């Protein structure tokens, strides 16, 4: 999976204090506009006190709290995935993305307000083996690992494509 991060650079060499302050304010405005929001709300589990540095969100199954340098923030799982815990393999299934997993592998009872992926987001599977799109009638199949990717048969060879941002196969 290719993760896309927006990178913001602020020139600090030979800048006056006023320019530095303006740059910092601009950077914070950009980051807050992109959804980097630090939450100071009550949580049932403090992520800074856990070994993994993560904790389940209180009301959303597809979000979780993370602690970095004693600052708690909310993280969204990728589309169609929900928090499973741990930040790595936890023995509770085949984790796909750090602390997140497909929703059918996770018990989200008690946190019913999760945001579900678009219909059809769950990949077509043959066990856990990827289906070759060149072996099927439609020549296009979902990726078994990520719901926002799909495979298409092009000139007899499977090619992997990403869905447009925010959409799932």
Automatic annotation (TrEMBL):
Q: Which InterPro entries match?
A: Chitin-bd_dom, Chitin-bd_dom_sf, Chitin_bind-dev_reg
Which GO terms label this protein's molecular function in UniProt?
Answer: chitin binding
Looking at the record, the residues that make up the Chitin-binding type-2 domain are: 45-110, 131-169
Top-rank taxon: Eukaryota
Q: Which species does the entry assign this protein to?
A: Orchesella cincta (Springtail)
Which residue ranges does UniProt annotate as crossing the membrane?
A: 20-40
Q: Which Gene3D superfamilies match?
A: Chitin binding domain
- What protein name is recorded for this chain? Chondroitin proteoglycan 1
> What PROSITE patterns would the database entry show?
CHIT_BIND_II (PS50940)
The protein's matches in Pfam families, at most eight in alphabetical order, are given as: CBM_14 (PF01607)
Signal peptide location = none
**SMART domains per UniProt:** ChtBD2 (SM00494)
Instruction: Give UniProt keywords alphabetically.
Output: Chitin-binding, Disulfide bond, Glycoprotein, Membrane, Repeat, Signal, Transmembrane, Transmembrane helix
Query: What does UniProt give as GO cellular component?
Result: extracellular region
């Amino acid at each position: 999976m290719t993760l896309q991060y927006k990178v913001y650079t602020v020139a600090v060499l030979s800048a006056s204090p006023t320019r530095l302050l303006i740059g910092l304010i601009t950077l914070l405005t950009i980051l807050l506009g992109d959804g980097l929001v630090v939450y100071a709300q009550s949580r049932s589990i403090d992520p800074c006190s856990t070994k993994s540095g993560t904790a389940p969100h209180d009301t959303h199954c597809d979000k979780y709290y993370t602690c970095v340098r004693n600052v708690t923030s909310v993280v969204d799982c990728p589309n169609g995935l929900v928090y499973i815990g741990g930040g790595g393999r936890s023995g509770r299934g085949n984790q796909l993305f750090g602390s997140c997993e497909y929703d059918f592998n996770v018990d989200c009872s008690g946190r019913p307000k999760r945001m579900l992926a678009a219909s059809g987001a769950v990949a077509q599977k043959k066990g856990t083996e990827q289906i070759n799109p060149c072996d099927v009638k439609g020549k296009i199949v979902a990726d078994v690992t990520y719901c926002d990717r799909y495979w298409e048969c092009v000139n007899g060879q499977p090619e992997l494509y990403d869905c447009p941002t925010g959409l799932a196969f």
